[in-house]
Amino acid sequence: MKLKSWLVGLLASVSLLLLALPGQAEQNQYAIRAVLPSNQVDQETGYFDLKVSPKQEQTIYVRIKNEAATKQQYDVATNLALTGDSGTIVYNQAKPKLDKTLPFNIADTVTAPKIVTVPAKTTSKFALKLKIPAKPFDGIVLGGINVSPHEQANQKRQAGVTLQNKFAYVLGLQLREQANITVKPDLKLLKVAPRQENYRNYIAAKLHNPRSVIIHDFHVDSYVVKQGSTKKQLQTTKDKMLMAPNSTFHFDMGDGTMMLTPGTYMLHLKANSENGKYKWSFTKSL
Q1: Entry's InterPro entries (predicted)?
Q2: Is the pTM of this model over 0.90?
């Protein structure tokens, strides 16, 4: 399947710039495609990767193919790329907390229609207007153009409960001012603290990517020891993760069931990316 083809299934690039969010195949009666402009860095990719300049204004286009037998409406939104706590890049937060190292929120540079209407068995395109800030930036700024059905699919009411199953596409939008990115990844450990998620208890290391570049092939080895002991507790290893530019996420340690007895503990965490090309090591009390 060529990357320029329509996005009609579960798609993902190395940086998760093309993807479809959960939904059943039989409900997917539409597809989207980027109309790549002349300032696209690589014309063989299926997402927007644009070389831009300060104060530049540009209009880009996305095509929607409606394969349904009736007219359809689609919601459109552009969101900043963030790092989910599972170690993946996500594009689903409309009002994210912005990292102080972020050059700018890509959503603020885009003006697009909120709803697009496409006649039955027709392909239409809609425009997104970009306005790049005046201040130059290094590396990349990353976001996603979200396209989803305006009407909720397969909505059923049973005993007053609404069940929803909605299919959505995210088309990557990456901006850069240099064709060749020279920014190198970095990693910071901001804090270590207990954290509860879905009624399960973890020790979480809050990791920070302060650079405007994706951390690829991200691998973390971690364990906790009680002061004065060498016994490893809450030992956790994860690999094949990704971190979005200028973002943070909680690296949860343990399975959510083990409780630490009172005392002073030390976290030992080692991380690397790109098969060990970049390495980091942290020790911190909690």
Answers
A1: WxLIP_HBD, WxLIP_PGBD
A2: no
